[in-house]
Amino acid sequence: MTTETTPGSRERLLEAAAALTYREGVSVGVDALCRAAGVSKRSLYKLFESKGELLAASLEEHASAQVTALFPEADDTRPPRERILRVFEQTEAQASDHGFQGCRYLAVQIELKDPNHPASRAAHRIKENLTAFFRTEAERGGANDPDLLARQLMLVFDGAGARAGIDADTRGGLVIPTVTTLLDAANMR
């Protein structure tokens, strides 16, 4: 274990936090995080004000990977309806991966129960970005109530991820038809 802050210490801590909290939850201890990252507690606290700040930074760091995995490319010219469906198709594909435990951002918010915790605030911002994407696409697609549709889509997104994460539902066949029904009801093109 290193006792000083090396250039890769921050990245290793962020990766350890992402992996351990996704697998074990946010209650994972500082000792376990430091052990997994191969850094000392002293190094952790030189780099991050608290464990909560480390968790928040880890969530933010992995948000760009989520955007890349779920969202269509910025220059994607498909209609808004298809851009929304792509998010759910990607979500279904991720849910079939071994080790899938649902949305890490929703899990953090549920586990912490404290909306003012740094990790809760980070998770909330990231989830709001997805809601904003749905709202923007709903507006572009002529939905009769873009805000309501965005909230409904988030409900399906979170519910589908949670149910798949606990193996309570089959991985496919339910999400896309549900989203399609919502898009049809909102007159989305």
From TrEMBL:
Q: Which top-level group of life is the source organism from? A: Bacteria
GO molecular-function terms, A-Z: DNA binding
What InterPro entries does this protein map onto?
A: Homeodomain-like_sf, HTH_TetR, Tet_transcr_reg_TetR-rel_C_sf
The UniProt keyword set, sorted, is: DNA-binding, Transcription, Transcription regulation
Q: What is this protein called?
A: TetR family transcriptional regulator
Q: Write down the Gene3D superfamilies for this protein, in alphabetical order.
A: Tetracycline Repressor, domain 2
Q: Which Pfam families match?
A: TetR_N (PF00440)
Query: At which residues is the DNA-binding region annotated?
Result: 29-48
Per UniProt, residues of the HTH tetR-type domain are 7-66
Which organism encodes this protein?
A: Streptomyces griseorubiginosus
